Amino acid sequence: MHIGIFExxxxxxxxAADIGAQGIRDAIAAKGEANIILATGASQFSxxxxxIQEPGIDWxxxxxFHLDEYVGMSISHPAxxxxxxxxxxxxxxxxxxxxxxxxxxxxxxxxxLARLASLIKEKPIDVAFIGIGENGHLAFNDPPAxxxxxxxxxxxxxxxxxxxxxxxxxxxxxLSDVPAxxxxxSIRQIMxxxxxxCTVPDSRKKEAVAMALNAPISPAAPCSIMRRHPSCYLMLDxxxxxxxxxxxx
Length: 249
Hints:
This protein is α/β, with parallel strands linked by helices. It has helices at residues 9-31, 45-51, 81-88, 109-121, 160-168, 187-191, 206-214, 242-247, and strands at residues 2-6, 34-38, 62-66, 68-70, 98-100, 127-130, 153-157, 181-185, 195-200, 232-237. It has one domain (2-247): 3-Layer(aba) Sandwich (Rossmann fold), CATH 3.40.50. The strands form two sheets. A seven-stranded parallel sheet has the order 1-10-9-6-2-3-5, sandwiched between helices. It is globular.
């Protein structure tokens, strides 16, 4: 795992975007297209701002896959991840080839999971831009995460720590407002990406960062699986890196 630690959020976001953007350019040069995954949440604001401004990317050759969305949530809800992506990415990239949103309010949900699975199985992922939750989750795969399923998208239960993170970041007024389930890209699907760029700022994530680097690789510590990825970049600011810096690892 490659680790970068940066002075501030803007520098962190810029470096994470630079690494991922080069993966996109390389994919387009090699095969005429690129397929990427984008995460949401407060941790991704700076990276996304820089990514959409990266030079030398022909976005008409790029397909983006959505990482997760709350079950039953409409795109008009302020906390909707589709709304987040539409406003922060899609509307700012008018030439983008395609964004494959998760319609987690579509019934029956199994049909939506099948649709998403058929799309992503046709498009090997070149770069996944991801984060780590305060509880160590990847996407919405809270501990204990399913490390075995081969399904690209699954329905997951959200634990209380995950749901409280969403309240703490200001997406919901209280715990009771946060949905109990989400559609999430699975661990194995995330790990299939050629390159993973994991952007993790803020002291709230310092325990999760320590988990990613030092915990036994197991479903109890979902982010620990990244240590098995051949090309994973863990991009941190100093508050997020506090525990690993103090321990020397």
